[in-house]
């Protein structure tokens, strides 16, 4: 049977991808951030998962305002790299996992999560930067990926509590898949940042620290953070952190924090990374 | 009529909600067209002519041509869309963020290097220097 073996949370700041693509990771500005990614890459390489579910948001790349899916799953066998307005990132095409993806789509819909299904979709920095952060710069990504998009661009995004419940449903679906696959799930975005308006540049380290701590101590309490609280405390784009709850919901109630990295700034953003492993007796 | 939203009390912030979605659609869809290299080229060659292909109102058109980044937000622009105009100009998110917050590129970059803009005093409109109300 398939099994979710671990969760990874990470920011997906586009400038992190640019820094890697242009060979700037050793500069004084970027070195402290990338140094902290080393242990996560080693951990993931050792774990060698068979497939990853990456929960992220599209940023006006695959989807415009024409159609705005709240939750979407990509079922294709491959996902090309999007041109976000300055040419596609020079990273490998993302291979999909259609069998598990279709199983998830069917299971989630019958479990009352009304997913949009995408057969064709380019993926942007929201998905590729987490891969770069955790896998480095391979000539091909080391595992297939199931993209799961959450709308956080058009207000309102789904609530944190709803995202957490989606994670639970993903867990139920994976547990029912009749093939021995070791699955990791990524929750991406955040942490505190604001890209717009006179208040651009907002960073809230105490909020982010409490959020990271809460992932193990009391994840349900975190799901009650309102959108307004995210925006007020963690910046208008900090609301992306609802996507971490999908990852957290898919894990055991008891998890162990394996690794954490937090650095300010990555461009306008507080970059966070956390690795969680299941700890409930099975 | 919808009621005023609690997030409207956050200073210097333009939440892309239903009201902004209704007025900003054409502006943002123009920005979306800049995902295609050939459209970026056409826009750069003749901005005014390119904009004629989209149903922007006069103020939206002015903000684009003037690169009035804050102004674009006020007429329904969404930052993930308007940033595509900045990419055409060779600017980054941080460049535009500095311009929107009214400080020099260097001042903004230094603020970020020293931990970013504090939420203290920036949680509520008309707030004093310290505000401990959590939403």
Q: How would you describe this protein?
A:
Chain A is an alpha/beta fold and 282 residues long. In chain A, 34% of the residues lie in helices and 21% in strands. Chain A has helices spanning 14-21, 31-35, 38-47, 98-110, 125-135, 160-175, 205-217, 219-222, 227-234, 242-249, and strands spanning 3-10, 51-56, 71-74, 78-79, 94-95, 116-118, 145-150, 182-188, 255-266, 269-278. In chain A, the strands form two sheets. Chain A has an eight-stranded mixed sheet, with helices on both faces. In chain A, β9 and β10 (269-278) form a beta hairpin. In chain A, 56% of the residues are buried. Chain B is an all-alpha fold and 135 residues long. Chain B has a domain at 13-91: Dioxygenase LigAB, LigA subunit (Protocatechuate 4,5-dioxygenase, Chain A, Orthogonal Bundle). Helices cover 53% and strands 0% of the residues of chain B. Chain B contains eight helices and no strands. The radius of gyration of chain B is 17 Å and the shape is flat. Chain B starts with 17 loop residues before the first helix and ends in a 22-residue tail after the last helix. At the A-B interface, α9 of A face α1, α6, α7 and α8 of B.
Topology:
The complex is a heterodimer of chains A (282) and B (135).
Chain A: E1 3-10, H1 14-21, H2 31-35, H3 38-47, E2 51-56, E3 71-74, E4 78-79, E5 94-95, H4 98-110, E6 116-118, H5 125-135, E7 145-150, H6 160-175, E8 182-188, H7 205-217, H8 219-222, H9 227-234, H10 242-249, E9 255-266, E10 269-278
Parallel strand pairs in A: 1-8, 2-7, 2-8, 3-6
Antiparallel strand pairs in A: 1-10, 3-7, 4-5, 9-10
Helix pairs in contact in A: 1-5, 4-6, 6-10
Chain B: H1 18-33, H2 37-45, H3 47-51, H4 58-66, H5 69-74, H6 79-88, H7 93-100, H8 105-113
Helix pairs in contact in B: 1-6, 7-8
Question: What keyword list fits this structure?
Answer:
heterodimer, A: 282 residues, alpha/beta, 34% helix, 21% strand, B: 135 residues, mainly alpha, Protocatechuate 4,5-dioxygenase, Chain A, 0% strand, flat, disordered C terminus
